[in-house]
Amino acid sequence: MKLTSGPLEDDILRLEPLNETHRAPLRPLADDPSLWVQTSLNASGDGFDHWFETMIASHDAGQQICFAVFDKASNRYVGHSSYLAIAADHNRVEIGWTWYGTAFHRSHVNPAAKRLLLAHAFACGADRVELKTGDQNLRSQGAMTKMGARREGVLRSHSLTWTGERRDAVYFSILKPEWPQVKAGLDARLMER
Question: For position 34, what pLDDT does the model report?
Fold first, then answer.
């Protein structure tokens, strides 16, 4: 797998590799404590700069490919998503650190972003794309299920949150042979918008 890091774009969204110009437009979107309940970093309020700098450092080190998500219909940035846990030798990658401003929850943004990210990952040679979320994040679990990802299970006490609590991680995946069906489902949802 040779995952490239350029911009991803269609007629709905543009996913731009994260850089300093995205700090100001993303900051107010992240200022919702409910987005960060089960995460390892808190990007609301004073935590935003630390979160942003961590994403940039991980991106620059080649550990992640981070994107600012720009919605063409509203003509504004709406959130963030990344490729992480990149295992090129195993043709495997995770899509994560996905969050959107509250106004864009349950909208076309997440299915459109996942459509771009999944298509690019599989085109670059991925055989498996993973997604994970906290066990209490029912909204994300519902979105992954609706997208067609297969729930694989729960890893108990998987990681430490920024509050010091342990969280269970719920894993989902999409395998390359499943991608055409998932793609068709995402395309159908996006046609309804």
Answer: 84
